[in-house]
Amino acid sequence: MNEIKKITIFYFSGTGNAKQIALWFSELAVKRNIDCQLYDIVKTNIQTIGTIHPDDLIIFISPIHGFNYPKITLDFIRHFPKGGNNIVLMNTRAGMKIGKIVTIGLTGIAFMFSSFVLRNKGYKIVGQIPFDMPSNWISIHPALNEKTVKYLHKVNYERVEKHSHKIFTGQHDFHAYRDLVQDILVSPVALAYYCAGRFAIAKSFFATADCDNCGLCVKQCPVHAIKTVDARPYWTFKCESCMRCMNHCPRKSINTAHGLIVIVSILSSVITTALLYHVFKINIESEFFRSLIWTIVFFGLIWIFYYLQHLLLKNRSMSKIISFTSLTYYKFWGRYKSILDKEWRV
Question: Structure pTM?
C-alpha cells in the first residue's frame, strides 16, 4: 500500500469518544499534509457524498454496542456504494483503568461482519484497530472519575499517534487480531443483542420529575428514537442506547429503569413457567425454546409496563418513588461525556 495522500473518515458517536478518535486522526493527518475529510454518519446522506477517488483511504469509526457496531453504523456500511478503495475499520470500546493498566473492551463481530460486507462490495480491508476509550455505559456502572477519563484520553491519543503513523505510511494494521479469540467467543452474545437485547435496553430509559421538557434529548437523538408522549420524553424500540441523552441532559433527569427491568424479568420467568407447566402442560427440555418463550413474554410485558410507568411518571410522588429504584438517579453515580483536549493536555 502506497503512502496516503487523502483520507475520508466516517464516524458515529454518542457521547463523543468515536468523534474524538476521528478528530485526532484528522489532526495528525493535517500535520503530514494529508487531506482529510470528516463525515458524521448521523448527518450524512450516502447519496450526496459524491465520488471518492479510488486512491483515497476510507476509515469507519464507531462505538461498540453489544459486541457489534450499532445498527445505524451497520446500515450505513450496508448501503455504502461499491468501490475498490482501501478501508480501515476502527471502534471505541469500554475502556477501564486498574492502576496504570487500561483494561480492554471487546469488539465482538463488528469488524468481522463489516469486513465481509465491504469486501463483497469490492473494497480491501487494510486495518482493524480498536481503541479503549472511557466506558460510557453508566446504566451498568458509575461514571468514571475525572482522573481516569483524562488518563484514558492521554493513553488513547498516544495509540492514535502510533497507529496513524502506520496507516499514513501505507502499512497494514490489524491490531484487532490480538483479541480475535475472545471476540469469536462473544459472537453469540453479539447476535442475541442485535436480535433482541437492544430492544429491551431501549425501554430502560425514562425522565424523572426533574425533567423540564427542554426537548434536547428529542432533538439530539441520532436515530430519532425519543418522542414526546403526554408532554414527556418517551423512548421507542428504535433506541440505540448510545447514552447521548442520559449523559448530555442538562438537568440529569434521564435515568435507567433498573426497577422496571427487575420486575419485568421476574414476572416473565413466573409467567413462562405457568404457561408451560400449568396452562399448556408442556414439558420442554430445550433451553433454547424456553428462552424463546421467555423472551416473547418479556417483550410483551416490557411494552405494557413501560407505558404504564410513563403514565405514573406524570405524578410527581410516583415519579420520585420510581426514581429511587434507579441507580443512576443518585448523585454518586455520575454522568459521562468525552472531554476537550485542553483538559488532559495540561
Answer: 0.92
Helices (H), 169-195: 180-185, 187-192
Angle 71-78/110-120 helices, nearest 10 degrees? 20
Closest CA to 222 of 62, 23, 37, 52: 62
SS3 state at 96: strand
d(C-alpha 313, C-alpha 103), whole Å? 38
Domains in the chain, please, with CATH? 6-190 (3.40.50.360), 195-333 (3.30.70.20)
Q: How far apart are the first and last CA of the chain?
A: 37
Report phi then psi at 198, rounded to 5: -65, -30
Model confidence pLDDT, tens digit, residues 269-317 = 999 988 887 666 666 667 778 888 899 999 999 999 999 999 999 999 9
Q: What cell was used for 282?
A: 408442556
How far is it, in rounded angstroms, from Cα 123 to Cα 152?
Answer: 32
Q: How far apart are CA 153 and CA 97, in angstroms?
A: 11
Apex 139 CA angle, 259 and 95, nearest 5: 155
